[in-house]
Design a protein that fits this description.
The protein is α+β, with helices and mostly antiparallel strands. It has helices at residues 5-12, 60-65, 79-86, 92-97; strands spanning 17-18, 20-25, 31-36, 39-43, 48-54, 68-73, 101-103, 109-111, 116-128, 131-143, 153-155, 158-160. It is built from 4 helices and 12 strands; from the N terminus they run αβββββαβααββββββ. The model has no long low-confidence stretch (mean pLDDT 91).
């Protein structure tokens, strides 16, 4: 390689992403939640999404034992929820006590409010180097059609704001969608 891990990470940081909190509960009742910016759609039929979870995450064992997970896409006013689940301080119970949530499919905690939430059955787990790629089949989702909150964005290691100043409708649809 002609680049360092830091250079690679910095280059990836040039791709703006949204922020999501991924939550789960395992058969023993242990809840876990992590903040990610590695969330993506995979398929429309069946409806599949993926998240990448760091192998160093202290919550990984809970996610690996779980049969369900939920993804909550955060709005710009939810920086605190992002920070809570990105933190290594405290226990999972303490983190969940700081945010509003409900229990969904399989008893999985679902962060509320959210721009959209996806409740998933685990479809597959794949080796992703220093991450585990978790693919879920969406079995329930909620989207507030009246919500006017902008998404919480991440770019170059910082939260960013969406701007309408240079917005324009794309003259095409993305391949496959």
């Amino acid at each position: 390689m002609s680049f360092t891990s830091r250079e690679f990470r910095d280059a990836l940081g040039l791709f703006p992403t949204g922020i999501a909190v991924v939550t789960t509960i395992d058969p023993a009742g242990r809840m876990a939640g992590v903040t990610v910016n590695s969330f993506s759609s995979v398929s429309l039929e069946p409806p599949l999404v993926l998240v990448s979870l760091a192998r160093t995450s202290r919550s990984l064992d809970v996610f690996e034992a779980a049969k369900h997970f939920a993804v909550g896409l955060l709005g710009f006013d939810q920086r605190q929820a992002s920070t809570i689940f990105a933190s290594t301080a405290g226990t999972s119970a303490e983190r969940f006590a700081q945010v509003r949530h409900r229990f969904g499919i399989g008893g999985c905690p679902v962060i509320e409010p959210a721009l959209a939430s996806f409740e998933c059955e685990v479809w597959a787990r794949h080796d992703g180097g220093d991450h585990v790629i978790l693919i879920g089949k969406v079995v329930a989702m909620h989207r507030d059609a009246q919500a006017t909150i902008d998404p919480l964005l991440y770019f170059r290691g910082q939260y960013r704001e969406l701007s309408e100043q240079r917005a324009e409708i794309a003259p095409f649809r993305l391949e496959g969608w």
